[in-house]
Amino acid sequence: MSDFTLVDIFFVITGAAVVVVSIVIIVLVLYIISFIRTIKQIATTANRAAELISEDAAALRNNIKAKGFNIAALFTFLKSMSKLKNIKGKK
Description:
Elements: H1 2-67, H2 71-90
């Protein structure tokens, strides 16, 4: 009879451990999914910012080719970069 009781205790403890480990794994998977979504949003924002910077650099290059290097072109480029900060801060 005592062997039967020990077996029952073993299965109860094992069952509880399986439930606890399953819950921990589910919580970890949910956190990992949330982390991956955040990384995806950061990558999208970085990609958008890189495209804007590329467009501004192309405009600066075309302006320099057309008019030659002048301070006004540089200030226009820097002004567009400050607008990029404003766009990034709004989101």
